[in-house]
Amino acid sequence: MLEVIWITMKAAEVGETMRAAYRVLAISVAVGVVLQAMFIALAWFTALKDMNGGAVIDKNTDENLGRTLHSVFGSGVIPILALALLIVSFFAHVDRGIRWALYVFGVLVLQFLLAAVAYSAPVVGLLHGLNAFALAAVASMAARRAAGAPAAASADSTT
Prior knowledge:
The protein is an all-alpha fold.
């Protein structure tokens, strides 16, 4: 009997740890988006400063720090965080947590597609910027879901 109680207590501790991980990962995605905005601003203000100083920026120009950071976070850090959020969502018992993690991942995929298209049609870059706000909002809402009470271990927590 004591063994069953101990196992139940351990499962509850693991569940709380996973909920905390879910929340931290979701918040990290949102913070990553804010950093992305800061990095791209740094990139363009650096480019403008360089051009005002007489530099010519073309395909042979090395990337500046802001563009490098934007690229690293956008193609590496944030996708890893979003994928980890999706994996953790299966164990966190957050009410509709899997659904919200899928929303985050879906908006992130759309962000990649918009960036890819924007290289050929720069006006699509406007949607890329707007979608970044959507990604931050959806990730923030996912994090808020993890702040509530744990979901019952039922079909409701897996939708």
